[in-house]
Design brief:
Elements: E1 11-18, E2 23-29, H1 56-95, E3 97-98, E4 108-116, E5 119-126, H2 137-140, H3 149-156, H4 159-166
Parallel strand pairs: 3-5
Antiparallel strand pairs: 1-2, 4-5
Length: about 170
C-alpha cells in the first residue's frame, strides 16, 4: 500500500491515482487556508461580510468581528435608551408644578395634597383638638421616680422668673 504523506497541512484537499504506477498522490493544506469556493449566502444582505474567495480562517474571523460589532451596537443602543428614558423621567418630574403656594396660618394645617395632570394643589384645614394626640404623663416625666409634675417643671425654670411670673 502506498504511503499518503505527500504535501504539508492538516487536511487532504486532493487525492489522485497515477494510472501508470498505480500510486496515489495527495495534496494537503491547513484547514484555515481552505477557500470557500462554493459558498453562497442564504440571506439577502446588501453588503455580505463573507465571500467565496475568503479562506475558512478569514471567514471565521469576519464572523467573530461581525458578532462583536453587533453586540457593541446593541449595548450602545441599550445605553442610549436608558439615557433617553432617564431624561424623560427627569423632564416629567421637572414639569410637575404647584398651582400656587399654600401657607398655613395660625390654627391651620395642610388638609390634603392632590396632583392632576402634573399640577399639585394643597388645601388647608382648621386645626382641631382631635388632630393633636394625647400625651401621657409617662412620656413627659419618669413616673417611676416622681409624679409631682408641677414640682419637676418648676425646678426647670429660673427661680426668679418662676417666683414672679408663673407660680403666683
Amino acid at each position: 500500500m502506498p504511503s499518503l504523506t505527500n504535501g504539508s497541512g492538516n487536511v487532504v484537499t486532493g487525492l489522485s491515482l497515477v494510472g501508470s504506477t498505480g500510486a496515489f498522490t495527495e495534496t494537503k493544506a491547513n484547514l484555515s487556508s481552505i477557500l470557500l469556493t462554493d459558498y453562497t449566502s442564504d440571506v439577502s444582505i446588501s453588503s455580505p461580510i463573507i465571500s467565496a474567495s475568503d479562506s475558512l480562517g478569514s471567514a471565521i474571523s469576519k464572523l467573530e468581528k461581525g458578532l462583536k460589532d453587533e453586540a457593541d451596537a446593541r449595548s450602545l443602543a441599550d445605553g442610549n435608551e436608558v439615557t433617553a428614558r432617564n431624561g424623560a423621567i427627569s423632564d416629567a418630574i421637572a414639569a410637575l408644578d404647584m398651582l400656587s403656594a399654600v401657607t398655613a396660618g395660625t390654627g391651620e394645617v395642610i388638609g390634603s395634597i392632590d396632583e392632576a395632570d402634573g399640577i399639585v394643589t394643597a388645601t388647608l384645614k382648621t386645626l382641631t383638638a382631635g388632630d393633636i394626640p394625647d400625651i401621657e404623663l409617662s412620656q413627659v416625666v419618669d413616673t417611676a421616680n416622681s409624679t409631682d409634675l408641677p414640682a419637676i417643671l418648676a425646678s426647670k425654670l429660673d427661680s426668679t422668673v418662676a417666683a414672679s411670673t408663673y407660680l403666683t
